[in-house]
Amino acid sequence: MVNEFGETIGIITIDDIIATLFTREQGRSRELLDRREVKLIGKNCWQLTGLTSLRTLKRRFNVSFRQYSSLTVGGLLREILERFPRVDDVCQVETLQFHVANVEEEHGLVVHLHILPNEP
Question: Which long-range contacts (C-beta less than 8 Å, at least 24 apart) are formed by 92-99?
C-alpha cells in the first residue's frame, strides 16, 4: 500500500481482502486502534480517526473530495493545512467541519466532525 505522499506504508494480505468483503463494518481503525472509524458522539458530531477513509465519509455524508488527492482524514488535514495537524486545528470541506481533538502518539489522530447546516 502507498499513502498519499507516495510512501510505502504496508501490504494487503488475502485475509485483509476477505475480511473487507465479508465484514459489515470496514476500516483499519477498528482493527488497529480498537476504535470505530466513525462514531456518533453528539448531535451532528462524530469522532473519526486519521485513518478514516474519505470514501467512507463521501458515502455517509454525501460530500465530494474531488479537489483533494488524499485518501484519509489525516491526509486531507495535512493537505489543507500544509503541515501536520495540531490539537484545535479546524478545517471545513463543504458542510463538514473537521476539528482536531487529539494527536496521540499511541493512537494517532482523533478528529471531531461537525455537520454544518447548508447555506441557502
Answer: 92/116, 93/63, 93/65, 93/68, 94/63, 94/64, 95/61, 95/63, 96/57, 96/61, 96/63, 98/48, 98/73
